[in-house]
Amino acid sequence: MNNNAPGGGGRFSPEIGRSGGQNHHGDASPSFRQQSGYEQHQFWFRRKTLGGNSSASNEQSSSQDWKSQLRLPQADTRYKTEDVTATKGNEFEDYFLKHDLLMGIYEKGFEKPSRIQEESIPIALTGSDILARAKSGTGKTAAFCIPALEKIDQDNNVIQAVILVPTRELALQTSQVCKELGKHLNIQVMVTTGGTSLKDDIMRLHQPVHLLVGTPGRILDLAKKGICKLEDCAMLVMDEADKLLSSDFQPSVEQLIDFMPANRQILMFSATFPVTIKEFKDKYLRRPCVINLMDELTLKGITQFYAFVEERQKVHCLNTLFSKLQINQSIIFCNSFKRVELLAKKITELGYSCFYIHARMLQDHRNRVFHDFRNGACRNLVCTDLFTRGIDIQAVNVVINFDFPKNSETYLHRVGRSGRFGHLGLAVNLITYEDRFNMYSIEQELGTEIKQIPSSIDQNIYCR
Question: Which stretches of sequence are listed as region Disordered (predicted)?
Fold first, then answer.
């Protein structure tokens, strides 16, 4: 894989065009606006040490062996690439988080912060706006869930943080992560998306909700009805921010921001940031800290192959791959919902277990498929690009592009479904004659290499 990919390099940088080379931040407190990034870190650490959360600090110091009392999951001993292992060596305790939140972090199986978590968590805790770019599968979700949970006052029964995501499946997944990390906190997490009962959401919002996760259209609908009250919401997180700022979502996002206080904090996370984001950043973010960890675009642990085939040979080629590869779980992408259903039927006829999912299915059916596949009920999932955004299923080690994607952004998100959090993965692309120029263009744009598939594939490159 070519390591000289385009993309930013560096850890974090001040807003482009600002003078002085310092990281200016826009917290509600004027003192933060006048300090450099380093000074803000020191200010925050002093504040936490001397005053903030002193009871949690005392509790930690009085129970040196508190970690030994936790119910930790079995350690993940799989090989990890330097995408997530090349860190500064920080510990989660270094951020002076609530003791109960630390318990949830470790019981979730997180051992140390990843690179994006090291960079974003302390800055987010200062109240600064963030524009963060990092690879898929490197820990972005926890990078914003942890500071959101830390900053919520569980005794104040109002919505204090909103996490926006572009798909219903990602909303369910993100809300589950929040609940698991905050399981020792008395923080009420609610998820709301289109395609579900509006009446149920209205009834739920009459109960305490501290953290709301959902899609922009549904949350905006509830806000306009006066049911979802956001005047005390101090934090807005935009996950897969580039998708949220597409023409499908941006009008709803901007209307939602109008319901929030003027001093709200906005955190934007994604693997890709098109030029169109700059206008939104300039309008809504106050001196944001820009974090760019995209020294290369594709994950180091994903090996990419192509196989030249004719359209009528694709199913036969797929059957051959199934028989030769060591698949834990695979995701197979098609470019239309009709092809998804037809291919899933073919795979089932070949004798392999297979689910399928696309946006035209009933929401209850989608939820059931997503839940069952995540829990390992089926080995193969055929889907449209509905499933490219942020879906994190650790067991997936093979991605197959049955239909090659049209652009580099879609390709990047698709192959990022394997090799999650530094683990190894395999991406196989079935390329027709018409796809060859598109594949070359994507290689150039991503600065990566897609190699011709060998007659036999070493399992060590995707199964260690």
Answer: 1-38, 50-82
